[in-house]
Amino acid sequence: MADRERTIDPRGHMAASPLQMPRRAWRDIALRTYKRVWDDNVALVAAGVAFYGFFALLSLLGLIVLSYGFVADPHTVIANMHSLTSVLPRDVAAVIGDQLMTAVKSSEGTKGLGIALAFLVAVYGGTNGAAAVITALNIAYEEKEKRSLLAFYLLAIGMTFVALLVTLVALGAVAAVSAIQKFFPAASDVTVLAGKIAGYLLVTLFAAAVAATLYRYGPSRENARWKWITPGSLFAAVALLLLTIAFGYYVAWFTDYSRSYGSLGAVVALLTWMYLSAYAFIFGAELNSEIEHQTAKDSTTGSPEPLGERGAWAADNVATDETVQDRPEEQREGEKLTQAAPKVAEEKG
Q1: Within a domain: residue 165?
Q2: For the chain, what is the domain count?
């Protein structure tokens, strides 16, 4: 039955899920994704996300210290964060550790109104980073921001607090695992290797879940069904893990950022890693957008709606057999050329 449907619908325009896409459809999706990555200037957008994300990270570390200080000694957050960032490249983890130490020293002796002001400043920094992510997702999904300014920043603030909560939960889990390990004897090499593999798998699944959540709620559009954002989420998570491992290996064996950039070497390494991560994340969004764009079936939540009434560009437009003039700006350019053609012909006549 599935083979018969693929024969009737070789480009997957009637596919009800990504799993039903035939091989030819995936070829179309891959070609359009490659094209859109260039047309949407994903490299430049990823650089902007990394820049704002860098300052958001510093704000998030301050929020972690301030929040952690209500329930435990802020100094313990450094040890727990070291375990949490063990999968990151050495220089990246070093910058995070240094900034945590700075945040701890800054928070010492701060009370009352000072804590409140520091908290608000940190939230503001984190909100700017979240806003950059939302803007990047709008670009990837071909959407213009339709939410009010208040709704936009409430979403950005919500993303900041969710990131804080998730990090605190992760730190708590690390602390719990460390406490449990004290009751067991030293683990064998096989156990350590199995633990590392399990840790990488958990990190990948967690990254996929975070990416899927952002892909669904970040863009200014009707929410996509989870199955339509899973491929891009898995791609982004696996790409992030591989990039992190490869970049860590590159930094450790093939380059010396400290020699090239001096005291800024570790910061440059962190920004480079954040840029690569942002690129993989936005690429996953572009992939999801093209997968939705390939089918005529309603990929949004709620009851099925006809084309043009679904509240999402990727869901309201079905990809043609051609990869040109497929986006709004390209269609407008094509219309201009079509309208200008008769005039050119008259002038030549």
Answers
A1: yes
A2: 1
